[in-house]
Amino acid sequence: MWEELKQAIRLSDRRFSYTSWTRYKELRNSFYSLKKSSCYAGYISCADWDDPRLFTLPALRRRGIPAEAVNAFVAKLGLTVAQTAIQPSMLDSVVRDYLNTTAPEQDLLSKVSSRARIMTMAVLEPLKVHIDNYLSLGLSDSLETPHFPANPECKNTYRIAFGQTIYIEREDFRPDGEKGYRRLTNNQPVGLKHIGLVLQVKNIQKDSDGVVDSIVATVEKLVDSNIKPKAFIHWVAEPVNCEVRLYEPLFKHKNPEDATAVPDGFLSDCNSNTLKVLPHALIDASVADAKIYDRFQFERTGYFCVDKDSSKQRLVFNRTVLLKEDSGKN
C-alpha cells in the first residue's frame, strides 16, 4: 500500500508541457482549404500540389523559397489571439531579405549549397545588338566579374563571355524614349555593366511588322568617353537558351471569399494570368550545369530557382521573388 502511494506521488509530481498555439493567420490572395485548393488547381490546370502558384510547402520549395525563410516568416508573425490576414508582400520581403544576405562559403562555390544564391546575368526578352566597331577596339572576349558584388568579403569571381554580338533586355531600348527614360534610345547612350563600356545606337533594323528586330551599335570605353551614362544595363554574350516562368497572384482581390467584393464566389475571382512563360530567355553560359533547386539572382531582375522540369539540354527557372523596385530604373 505504501509503495503504491509513493508511486502515485511521483506521478502527480511530473511536469507536463503545454503548447500555446496562435490563432489562424490567413495569407491574402490565397487559401488553405484542401477542398478549395482542389477546385482552384483544377480550374487553372495546376500540374500538381507543388505548382509554384500554390502556397503548399512543396510549392514554396519548388518556387525557390528556402525553409529558413519560411521559418523566419512564421517567427516574424509572432503570437496573437485574433485571426489576422497577412499580405503576400510580407512573405516576399522576408524571402528577399534572406536571399540577399545568404551566400555560399568560398570553398563551396563549386558545389552550391541549398541555402545559397549566386549572381548572374540573364535576359528574359532578348534584343540582339551587333557592335560595329568591336574589332577595331581590340576588346577582350571575356572578363571576370564577382559572384556577389554587394559583399566585398566574398572574393569569388566567374568568367563571362563578351563579343561582337550581345543581347540586352528588349525593355531597355526605346527608339524615342519619353521624358525621364534613362536607358538606351536612338539618341541616348547607356552603360554596360561590369565591362566599362558605353553603348550607342548607330541604326536599328525592323522586321516586316515594324518591330525592332536588332540594333547596330558602337561602343566606347568609359574611361575615354566624354559621355556619362544615365544608367547601366545588363547583357549576355554567347549565352545558352532557357525557359523562365513568372508567377502572379492567384486572385484579383485580396480576399476572394469576401461576398461583398466577390459576389459570384472565389472561382469567379481567379486570375487567368497567373503564369507567364518566356521560352526564349538567354542566360550566361556559366550556369549551364546548374542543378534542380539551385538559386540565382538575375541582375536587375529578381531571384530565380532551377525547376524540376529542367533537363541537360534546357534549364527552366521559376521566379522566386522580384528585386526591390529601383526608383531610378527608368
Automatic annotation (TrEMBL):
E.C. no: 6.1.1.18
GO biological process: glutaminyl-tRNA aminoacylation
Keyword ATP-binding assigned: yes
GO molecular function, one term: glutamine-tRNA ligase activity
Domain spans labelled tRNA synthetases class I (E and Q) anti-codon binding: 232-307
Pfam family, one: tRNA-synt_1c_C2
Catalytic activity annotation: tRNA(Gln) + L-glutamine + ATP = L-glutaminyl-tRNA(Gln) + AMP + diphosphate
InterPro entries, A to Z: Gln/Glu-tRNA_Ligase, Glu/Gln-tRNA-synth_Ib_codon-bd, Glu_tRNA_lig_a-bdl, Rbsml_bL25/Gln-tRNA_synth_N, Ribosomal_bL25/Gln-tRNA_synth, tRNA-synt_1c_C2
Residues of the Glutamyl/glutaminyl-tRNA synthetase class Ib anti-codon binding domain: 121-219
Gene3D superfamilies reported for this sequence: Glutamyl-trna Synthetase, Domain 2, Ribosomal Protein L25, Chain P
UniProtKB keywords: Aminoacyl-tRNA synthetase, ATP-binding, Ligase, Nucleotide-binding, Protein biosynthesis
UniProt GO cellular component terms: aminoacyl-tRNA synthetase multienzyme complex; cytosol
Uppermost EC category: ligase
Entry similarity comment: Belongs to the class-I aminoacyl-tRNA synthetase family.
Protein name: glutamine--tRNA ligase
